Automatic annotation (TrEMBL):
Localization in the cell: Secreted
Organism from which the protein derives: Littorina saxatilis
Domain C1q: from-to ranges: 94-228
PROSITE patterns, A to Z: C1Q
Full protein name: C1q domain-containing protein
UniProt keyword list: Secreted, Signal
Major place of residence: secreted
GO cellular component: extracellular region
SMART domains xrefs: C1Q (SM00110)
A family per Pfam: C1q
């Protein structure tokens, strides 16, 4: 039925097809192998990039932390410097504060003097100087406007026929010193130095006798030597 040529052709078809199928299958396997290798390589790269990214993120966070710490430290130093400046300005203002007063009696009577009857502060009504407004003529007291070391000076003159007179410089009720005059035209004086805190008071108190000369014969003076 078939010629020899036909038999040969049929044999070729039967055996050629499986060969072709086999060849295509190997190619697919090879392609998949290549793809697997490529995926593995990509995964390695991805993993490396992930590690690098984490490292960079950690470095970035560390840098942010350092910057925040540096900023906080700088802010603290700036605040401290501002506080120091404020303290220095306050100190300069305090040190440059002038406090001084000189007071006496407006009235004077050479024969009878100014009568003294009370141990309350003597009211010197003639204010020669009152820098800093520390002296109050209404109650006869000096009130320290700033804390510091002060010096006080008191001089008095006696009156003829009235015997001895004693005056005292008093700080917050504590006597600092006395001034004594024996008789007519006898003059006594004293100077004391004392530390006063803000608001402490100093005044002159009648301690004994009954009269002193007025005007510039009896004078009370005080001034700030050094502020705290």
């Amino acid at each position: 039925m078939f010629s020899s040529r036909s038999k040969t052709f049929t044999f070729f078809i039967l055996f050629a097809v499986p060969l072709s199928i086999c060849t295509n299958s190997d190619a697919d396997v090879n392609a998949r192998a290549v793809d697997d290798v490529s995926l593995e390589s990509l995964q390695v790269v991805v993993d490396q990039q992930a590690v690098l990214t984490q490292s960079l993120q950690a470095e970035l966070q560390a840098e942010k932390n350092r910057a925040a710490a540096a900023e906080a430290d700088l802010l603290s130093k700036v605040t401290a410097a501002q506080n120091n400046i404020t303290a220095l300005q306050t100190r300069v203002a305090t040190l440059s504060t002038a406090v001084a007063f000189t007071v006496r009696f407006t009235f004077d009577d050479a024969l009878n003097g100014i009568p003294l009857h009370s141990t309350s502060p003597m009211l010197f009504d003639d204010i020669v100087l009152n820098t800093g407004d520390g002296y109050d003529p209404q109650n006869g007291t000096f009130t320290a406007p700033v804390a510091g070391t002060y010096s006080f000076f008191l001089t008095q003159m006696g009156v003829n026929g009235h015997g001895g007179t004693i005056l005292a410089i008093v700080q917050n009720g504590t006597t600092l010193d006395f001034v004594y005059c024996k008789d007519h035209e006898d003059q006594g004086s004293t100077q004391v130095t004392s530390h006063l805190v803000y608001g402490e008071q100093v005044w002159v108190r009648h301690q004994g006798g009954n009269a002193v000369r007025g005007s510039y014969y009896t004078v009370f003076t005080g001034y700030l030597l050094l502020a705290d």
